[in-house]
Amino acid sequence: MPIKDRVLKTEKINWLDLKDLQPTNLKNSHHTNLVKESLLKNGFANAINVWQDPETNQIYIADGHTRRDVLVELKADGVEIPDELSCTFLDFPDRKTAIKNLLEVFNSKINPINEEAMMEWFEVEDLKKEEVEVDWLNVEINETLKQEEHTKQEEHIKQEEHIKEIEDKKIIRVFLECKDENQQEKIFNHLQELGYEPKIQNL
After folding, report:
1. What is the pLDDT of residues 87-107, one digit of tens each?
2. Which domains does the chain have, with CATH numbers?
3. Which residues sit opposite 140 in a β-bridge?
């Protein structure tokens, strides 16, 4: 099978006009600060990979979402950024092909993919999991949701056990009047030996 050159051209375009091809919550961006530090120190040294929809002419980001988002933040903070930055245009015939390549070629191993967001995206784009090589993708299940569900289950079990314990436990209240502290101590100790939980109340 021959290797196809997917690169059409590289040119400077208005990067603020770029749209996201993937959902904004697809990636769990754990390294945004590192990207920000690199841009401030080294500048913009790697072109953003884009795909232009032949039907609408809208330009979408195929790779470079995190950098674009960080650039937006930096611009809002007052950092001077050129209006146009280098973008490499890739040759994909349609949106589905562009999405498949985004996942299979440009999926970053640094920022893991949120599995729930990915499956919702597939549903919107009418994509089946089998159509994309997702087995090797850096997919991260939302651990927070899993932990919350586990905690809820544990709390429910503890609540049921507590209710059962109350139902099974027979509470007997018996009031004894003792003539002196010595008799009180003897009765108290004897009841404890029998498995009761006596309490002393001074009247």
Report:
1. 999 999 998 888 888 777 766
2. 7-137 (3.90.1530.10), 150-193 (no CATH)
3. 114
